[in-house]
Design brief:
- Helix content is about 20%, strand content about 35%.
- It contains two helices and eight strands.
- The protein has two domains: about 30 residues, no CATH class; about 60 residues, no CATH class.
- The chain is of the alpha+beta class and about 120 residues long.
- It has a four-stranded mixed beta sheet with strand order 6-5-3-8, with helices on one face. The chain has a two-stranded antiparallel sheet with strand order 1-2.
- Helix 1 packs antiparallel against helix 2.
Length: about 120
């Protein structure tokens, strides 16, 4: 639920200004709407990434450790293709994080296949 409202704190009437007087809280609700979630896309079949440095592979290992899940990751290094022992979560941020490590051109979603 989303709402737009006004919250006021004021000193109780009849108190001397500056005294440590009790305050009254009033909330005025102007509008209430149901919360609409953004549509989540389908679960990726698997993520494929092409690594060109040890630094990228280490960054991928840290990402997998911090976001474990059931979506397989297939690592391509030269002519070698290997499924990672851990999968990654299906979070909406995963593609962004993978592209931050490997670049847009070296991250793609595909069937779980171990051929280049």
């Amino acid at each position: 639920m989303c709402s737009s409202d006004l919250v006021r704190f004021r000193e109780r009437r009849g108190t001397i200004p500056g005294d440590d007087a009790p305050t009254e809280l009033s909330i005025t609700v102007n509008e209430v709407k149901p919360f609409e979630r953004a549509a989540v896309g389908p679960i990726p079949r698997s993520w494929h990434v092409t690594a060109s440095s040890r630094k990228e592979i280490d960054a991928l290992a840290r990402l997998l450790e911090g976001s474990p899940g059931a979506v397989p990751i297939v690592l391509h290094v030269g002519d070698t293709v290997q499924r990672m022992p851990r999968g990654i979560s299906n979070g909406p941020y995963v593609r962004y994080e993978l592209e931050a490590i490997f670049g847009n051109a070296r991250v793609w979603e595909a069937e779980l296949s171990l051929s280049s």
